[in-house]
Amino acid sequence: MAAWDTGWKRSSGFWKAPGGFGEALAACSALGPVAYVEAEYFGGHGSQAAQVWDGGEAVLGPDVDPSAGTPISQALRRLGVARGPDGDEFDAVGLGRHRDPEDWLGED
């Protein structure tokens, strides 16, 4: 897989990243793996997308095998995150505490 030439498009599964961001992340990955993830949910329905670069090359995504877990969990796995005892990689790094915006209130 190669990094994008002209920026990210809806057809690639990404909505928020600016043009050229894929190339910047590919360059950053010369020092180690780098991931970009997106999640868009409303009312319990939505989608995730993820891509991981390592050594200047895309090594995961943006199309991922759904049988291997969510796109974000797959990306975290590529970064070396191990699944937690009570959840997936998403929960293991503490992202689960951001699932519900109401839970953010009162956080320091």
Tell me what you see in this structure.
- By secondary structure, the protein is an alpha+beta fold.
- It has one domain (10-102).
- Helix content is 19%, strand content 21%.
- The chain has helices at residues 21-28, 71-78, 89-92, and strands spanning 34-42, 45-54, 57-60.
- Strands 1-2-3 form a 3-stranded antiparallel sheet.
- Strand 1 and strand 2 form a beta hairpin.
Give a brief rundown of this model.
The protein has 108 residues and is an alpha+beta fold. The protein has helices at residues 21-28, 71-78, 89-92, and strands at 34-42, 45-54, 57-60.
- Integer count of domains: 1
Morphology:
globular
Instruction: Please indicate the percent range of residues in DSSP E strands (runs of 2 or more).
Output: 15-25%
Helix content: 10-25%
The strand count comes to: 3
What characteristics describe this protein?
108 residues, alpha+beta, three-stranded antiparallel β-sheet, 19% helix, globular
Please render the helix and strand layout as text.
Elements: H1 21-28, E1 34-42, E2 45-54, E3 57-60, H2 71-78, H3 89-92
Antiparallel strand pairs: 1-2, 2-3
